[in-house]
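Usage

Read records sequentially. Each one opens with the input sequence:
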Amino acid sequence: MYILSDIKTLENIQCDENNKGLGLCAIPQAMFLFSIVNLFGNLMKKPEKQETRQAFQYIFGVQSNLFPEVYSQNWEALLELYRNGLMHQIFPKGCGISKGKVKAPLLEKDEKGRIINLNVNVFTRDLKNAIEKIKTRIASEEHTELAIRMNRKLDILADYDFRKQSRFSEKES
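and closes with the structure output:
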């Protein structure tokens, strides 16, 4: 799965004495991770319509059993502050992103309980674990419905993408 190879490439960019914490690709890494969450959430949830909010609520929710509890407790903040901030304005909304220690918490909060930082290394570890769980479920006979639903949705996406692409190709001719 090329997604895991790309995650690994971004994950390998870590702080050393030469870069002083700059140029670590924490923002592109987080953007990529949130895109993956969005994709898998939409592929796995039951309603056919693609909606980012429902995708995040599903995939980070307790019912999916893919991520640690901190995600279900903070899915709206992860969506609104981080995913939407990163995708629409390149930076998270009023908080930061860092490549902290993997044993540190996912989210750092200030004394008033406001989220001030996302540890992208923890997010990376947890998403890789979630992907492994998804792969196991897809391969399991008891989750045949999930595999069928995900394949059907991938076919719909591919069809939509090819229609879009051909529309622009025709203009070039």
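Summary fields computed downstream for this record:
- Residues 144-172 form the longest helix (29 residues).
- The mean pLDDT is 89.
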